[in-house]
Amino acid sequence: MTGWILAVCLRIEAQTFSLEAVSDSLSRLVLTTDSTCDRWDLPYPVYQFQVGDIDGDGSIDAMVGVIKKTRFHREMGRRLFIFKNHRGRVRPLWMGSKLGGQLEDFRFVDGVVRALESTRDGKYVVSDYRWEEFGLIFAHFIEKNIKQKDQAYEKFLDNGIRPAD
Do 128 and 113 meet the contact criterion of CB atoms below 8 Å apart? Predict the structure, then answer.
């Protein structure tokens, strides 16, 4: 009896996102793979850059914090943009205008975006946001009602903290 063997070849390319600073108000997000190099101009000041698999598809995404106005929020503010690798090209995955409060900083930790946000009453919160289908959604507070910015940054940077009730 003759048997059949089905072989599937899957080529997985290495990829790297990096950030090139061209000037104070122009940066380029660079995606380099084994066979391509693509760039995306960011004509805004950049305050943060993180990488990680935010949407759980097994591919590394780039999270870039920019300072800009938006159509819905006319004041200058810190925004979060997320980019993906689509066939060797940099493509936007999510171009957020706002999370819950006013974004002060963010970082990628344990598969979520951890955000330090200020509130209208002058306090700070540390929150986690997770990816769900189209974009980031609120997951939980790590800490609420923090009065001092330096204390808020300590909570934001602490890896051993657990969600607040």
Answer: yes
- Please report the DSSP string for 62-123 in residue order: EEEEEEE--SS--S-EEEEEEEEEETTEEEEEEEES--SSEEEEEEEETTEEEEEEE-TTS-
Spatial distance between the Cα atoms of 104 and 127, rounded to a whole number of angstroms: 12
The pLDDT tens digits of the residues spanning 84-99 come to 999 999 999 999 878 8
Kindly report the pTM of this predicted structure.
Answer: 0.86
Please tell me the distance from the alpha carbon of residue 24 to that of residue 3, in angstroms, as a whole number.
64
> What contacts 24+ positions apart, CB below 8 Å, involve 109-116?
109/159, 111/52, 111/53, 111/54, 111/56, 112/139, 113/54, 113/63, 113/80, 114/142, 114/156, 115/80, 116/152, 116/153, 116/156
Torsional sign, CA 84, 86, 91, 92: negative
Rg (CA), the chain: 19
In the predicted model, what is the mean pLDDT of the chain?
89
CB 37 within 8 A of CB 2: no
**Which residues lie below 8 Å from residue 3, measured CB to CB, with a gap of 6+?**
none
